[in-house]
Amino acid sequence: MSWVLSAFSPHKHTPLPAGVRTVPCTAMDRLMANGLVLTAGLVINARLDTKILEESLSRLIEHKFPRAGARLVCRNGAYEFQIPERFDAKTPPTAFTVDDYDEAYNRAGRAQIPVALTGSQPSIIPLPELDQFFRSKTCPKVEDDFLQPNMPMLHVHVAVFHDLTFIGVSVSHMGFDLLGIAVLLAAWTRAINGDDFDAIPGMEWDAQPFAHYVPAPGSSSLTPTRTSLRGWFKLGWLSQLSFIGRSVLSNLLDPKAVNYVVRVPKAFLNEEKRKIMDELKAQGSDEYVGSSDVLLAWWHKTVYSYRVPTDHTPVHLHFASSLRSRSIFAQDGPLAYPYINNAASFLPVPPVPVNAFVKESLGDLALRIRRAIVAYNTDAASLCADLHWLFEGSNAAKKPFPCPPGAEFSFTTNWRDGKLGALDFSGAVVSDPRSEPAATRVVFAHSFATGKTALMRGFGTVMMEDDDVVWMRQIRGSKDWEKIRQSGAVAFAGH
Q1: pTM
Q2: Total structural domains in the chain?
Q3: Which of 291, 262, 297, 300 is nearest to 462 (CA)?
Q4: What CATH number should be reported for the domain holding residue 28?
Q5: pLDDT at 88 over 80
Q6: DSSP string of 195-210?
Q7: Which residue in 39, 12, 82 sits closest to 171, CA to CA?
Q8: Distance (Å) of CA 440 to CA 104, 128, 319, 443
Q9: Which residues pair with 134 in a beta bridge?
Q10: What gap in Å lies between CA 167 and CA 409, rounded to an integer?
């Protein structure tokens, strides 16, 4: 999410074209979009039949997720989804491209996919350069590319090798959030594997679960005292200059942003969680921490391990939280159907001073995170107030900041609920008489974004988990990474 969102430019009146249905983009879509193009990449340990992949996806979109086949349009100064009433060769539901390599992927000169690594302790690995296998040369790179006439909002690129298949799903962030992509992927694999098609839940073309948060024309403000979303800051112009200046200086001092993969064994997380729970039980406490709390506490403790114990700089942690399961929709219940568009907010954790990450135990830090999550989940009224504020007037286009000047911030998006590691593409496997059949699974997942605004330092994604490991991707400056390595808090592969 950016803290600078442009207002829409005025346009002359343009009528709705024939042959399409239209749904307005919501304030949630505008808030999250930031002009970004998202790509979710999967690596599957088998050669897949691209015809099965394309035909099953096209059928799924046409009959279950027509919104996924929409075109993004800015008409009369507002963004909207235009959904074709019919899909055909001239108006396909998705742009589907294929690169077929008549060879095995594993050979000299290609990036190694970090699936064969072992070890009981966390480690940090250079992110393999796989982007070329997840996006075609014609795939849109910025949001404006999606505004071209008849441009599908969903682009799927498949690179097929004898031993692996790469599937890249690229979308405008205006139309999907990260878990929205996972929703579509889960339904797609069910269609691929021959599940009863009628039993696969879909999303109606006109679904608008946030409509009741849009104030009626002429109504008074529902949140007169609110100036920003919880966890975000409305800064005066001097504070904005200070914030921007500090950010520019930080990037000048550490100019190279570097992506790393973080491998965290589940055995490590489970053992640390067990120790924390044993300590809480011994204290007579009935509090609880989850493995994700331990994961995020461990990561931030590792990141700040080299900082001095006297550093009191406040750190504002922002965790992306899907709203789909929250009781904030119709009849104050959770969302009753799959939803691909943006339905996420950021869960704020009370600021944590840097020296707390240095001095406090992993258990104490995990409890800080768990308590913030519990407070967030039990306060539906404040969440509804956030949404009412967001949907009022032009609030979605205002300029929120992730922390005040002099503080630091960190973002984490957690894909674990997307269950990417559990996706089953076995229904599309091309049988190979030369080798024994093996269980088809996703062995690696990657996500990245392009657009007018680059992703920030301190941004991370929990990409996926398999039976043994949780995989994260993290972005930091190269000098920052070197200080983390020198601290000895975590092993760096190859060092």
Answers
A1: 0.92
A2: 1
A3: 262
A4: 3.30.559.10
A5: yes
A6: --GGGS----TT--TT
A7: 39
A8: 16, 22, 32, 9
A9: none
A10: 32
